[in-house]
């Protein structure tokens, strides 16, 4: 599969997903108004980025037709990193109900950052803590999205 083809397919899938999320949000109850606004925002961003991907694919295919060649897609460039990340994601999904969202996410983000080659511990700790604080502020406090509490509630 050529890159232009895969970009077009993924862009079309993104447009379909954005439309589906926006339509699903219309059925939310009135008390979830903040969540509905957030879903509309996500749908808009996903739709715009997918539209950009489709248009970029169409422009590339036109140029590729002129040059009569296009680069093929290499789906997995680093199998070790891909499989390690996949294993970490499966472990994260398994451990989250037991530890809770925030402790499991903290451990997952630290491990994954280190595994993928980020070797500045203070920046890794600070970035992880900052991102989780942002998630807590936006999703737990502002949008009141329930997260798995684990043994600590």
Q: Brief overview, please?
A:
This protein is an all-alpha fold and 153 residues long.
Which features characterize this protein?
153 residues, mainly alpha
Specify the biggest β-sheet.
none
Residue windows where pLDDT falls under 50 for at least 5 positions: none
What class, by secondary structure content? Answer: mainly alpha
Number of domains: 2
Helix count, per DSSP? 5
- DSSP, total strands: 0
User: Radius of gyration in whole Å, from Cα?
Assistant: 20 Å
Q: Name the helicity range.
A: over 70%
Strand content: under 5%
Order of helices and strands: HHHHH
- Write down the overall mean pLDDT: 88
| Ends apart, CA distance between termini | 48 Å
- What is the global morphology? flat
Explain how this protein is built.
The chain is mainly α and 153 residues long. The chain has two domains: 3-67; 79-152, no CATH class. Helices cover 76% and strands 0% of the residues. The chain is built from five helices and no strands. It has helices at 3-25, 33-67, 79-99, 101-115, 121-142. Helix 1 runs antiparallel to helix 2, helix 3 (79-99) packs antiparallel against helix 4 and helix 4 runs antiparallel to helix 5. The mean pLDDT is 88.
Please outline the helices and strands.
Layout: H1 3-25, H2 33-67, H3 79-99, H4 101-115, H5 121-142
Helix pairs in contact: 1-2, 3-4, 4-5
């Amino acid at each position: 599969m050529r890159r232009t083809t895969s970009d077009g397919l993924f862009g079309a899938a993104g447009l379909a997903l954005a439309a589906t999320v926006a339509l699903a949000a219309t059925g939310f109850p009135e008390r979830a108004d903040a969540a509905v606004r957030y879903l509309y925002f996500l749908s808009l961003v996903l739709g715009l980025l997918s539209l950009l991907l489709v248009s970029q694919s169409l422009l590339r295919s036109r140029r590729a037709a002129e040059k009569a060649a296009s680069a093929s897609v290499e789906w997995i460039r680093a199998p070790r990193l891909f499989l390690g990340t996949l294993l970490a994601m499966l472990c994260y999904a398994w451990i989250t109900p037991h530890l809770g969202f925030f402790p499991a996410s903290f451990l997952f983000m630290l491990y994954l950052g280190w595994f993928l080659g980020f070797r500045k511990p203070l920046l890794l700790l600070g970035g992880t803590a900052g991102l989780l604080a942002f998630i807590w502020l936006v999703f737990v406090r502002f949008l009141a999205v329930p997260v798995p509490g684990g043994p600590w509630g």
